Each structure stands twice: as C-alpha cells, then as structure tokens.
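Lab manual, section 2.4: Encoding a predicted structure.

Procedure: take the sequence of the chain (187 residues), apply the prediction step described in section 2.3, and record the output as structure tokens. A sample record is shown.
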Amino acid sequence: MATTSDIRKGLCIKLSNDIYKVVEFLHVKPGKGPAFVRTKLKSVTTGKVVDNTFSAGHKIEDIRVETNKYQFLYNDGDDYNFMNVDDYNQIIVNKNSIDNPELMKEGEIVSISINTEDGLPLSVDMPASVILEVIHTEPGVKGNTATNATKPATVETGAKINVPLFINEGDKIKVDTDKGNYQERIK
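Recorded output:
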C-alpha cells in the first residue's frame, strides 16, 4: 500500500476494479482545509482518462511493475509488436496502451511496463522526442513569415505535424512525443 505522497507520473495504481497510470498530478495545500492531490489517471485497459482527487494521506493500492527496454518491430492493425533488447522475447501491445503511436517508427527503443502479477504489458513509454523525416509538405510562401506561421507536414510514420514554413520535404525534424509538437530541425 502506498499513500498520496508516493504519487508520481507513471505510477500504476488499482482503483475501482481497474488499473490506472498516473499521467499528471498536483499536490495542493489550500489556505483553509486539508491538503489534497489532484490527479489525471489513464486506464491501461480502455485508454480512458479520468480526473480524481485524493485527500492527503489517503491509502492507494499500487501495482508492482517491471520496466524493460523493447524495440518496436512492426504494427499489425491495432496490435504493435515489440522485442525485448536483452532476451529477444517478443510481446504484442494494443494500440490503446501507447501514447502517440503514430510517432513510433520501426527500430525505436521504448520502455514497456509489465505487471509482475500476470505478466501483461501495462503501458509503453516513448523517449521524450523522436527524429522523423518529412515526406510531404507544401512549399512555404515567401514573405508570409510576419508571425509564427505553420503548415501541415506528413512524416515518415504517417503522422501529420504542424511545422514552420521553412521546413521542406526530406528535412529531419525533432518531435516532442508527449504533445506531438515540432521542436526543431535536425541538420
């Protein structure tokens, strides 16, 4: 058993007969009344995100997880196939357990959290950013840069990302995997 002081991003807990992963949390100490923890939880079975508030010192049931490095091999519809980089065992993870799966290219190394009780994968954590090649975008219009203007671009994984006007086809860009935003151009 854990308490609200143990809540952190990525913690898996059992709540109302389902397993949730903490996506965001905030410890709040108001001027009046007791402290509490505001959380945003994502169900690992359905992918549904819920908001929940725990009072300070509330007991929560955490799940024992084991995290290993896996390499993304390929996807087959909603099933994504990964290989453990240590022992070469392969596992299949449903699309719902992955945040921004459209940003993942073949060969990408990710961290997968596995429930130690039943051996089922709970979540897939991608690196903070990925480098992807732009395969299609319209050319930027000269003189249209008075503000931070952007245009849509399709990257090698098929995802559509808004990029600055100076990005051309064939450029490699760094993309934030948390929000799916353009960060910078890679030379």
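Check your result against the sample. The chain has three domains: 2-62, 65-125, 129-186.
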